[in-house]
Specification:
10 helices; Lipoprotein
Length: 192
């Protein structure tokens, strides 16, 4: 009798713990997306005139990623694909062609370190993840990249940071934007 009573209570407890963890993950995704969108919108709207093509401004990361796929630099949208992309050599003419196709110079739409601050905000201010989470481990690994990687996208420190992001999360563009920003800025420094 006692076992019949205990089993449903234990099951409810187990399910509620699992759903709380999943809800906190969803909450983090929502808050992270909102934070990055706000930073990006502020940057885009302050940096470009209103008549700049809205679609290109709002979708600049998708446009760059699609162009990288079209030109054969990015073989798949996955951590493996991005690691290969970051370690490959991209012809500098690719970026000149990209700017020509979208109709303006998007330098300001690929901010350096703009989105990484959202991890800090969500950790320190909102306490949305703990020190044993992938978000915290990513933040630590990315800090090592900033400290020792010399902002080189081919740095093993950047690859270590990328590896901390779960594959299912990496399918969401909000977690790839940072790497597209770094890629674009790395090559833009070589063009100038």
């Amino acid at each position: 009798m006692f076992r019949k009573f205990l089993l449903p209570i234990f099951s409810i407890f187990l399910i509620s713990c699992a759903s709380t963890k999943k809800q906190s993950g969803i909450l983090f995704d929502q808050k992270f997306e909102k934070c990055t969108d706000e930073k990006y919108d502020r940057l885009a709207n302050l940096s470009f005139p209103v008549d700049t093509l809205l679609f290109q401004k709002e979708n600049i990361h998708n446009l760059l990623e699609n162009e990288l796929i079209k030109e054969g630099y990015l073989e798949e949208i996955s951590k493996k694909g991005y690691i290969k992309l970051l370690n490959s050599d991209i012809d500098l003419e690719f970026f000149e062609k990209f700017e020509s196709e979208i109709g303006f110079n998007p330098d300001l739409l690929f901010p350096t370190m703009q989105f990484i601050t959202c991890y800090g905000i969500l950790y320190h201010r909102l306490k949305l993840f703990k020190e044993d989470s992938w978000q915290f481990k990513f933040g630590q690994a990315f800090n090592e990249y900033e400290a020792y990687g010399k902002m080189n996208i081919k740095s093993p420190y950047l690859e270590n940071a990328l590896e901390e992001i779960p594959e299912e999360k990496f399918k969401n563009l909000i977690y790839r934007k940072l790497f597209l920003d770094l890629l674009y800025n790395y090559y833009e420094q070589h063009i100038q």
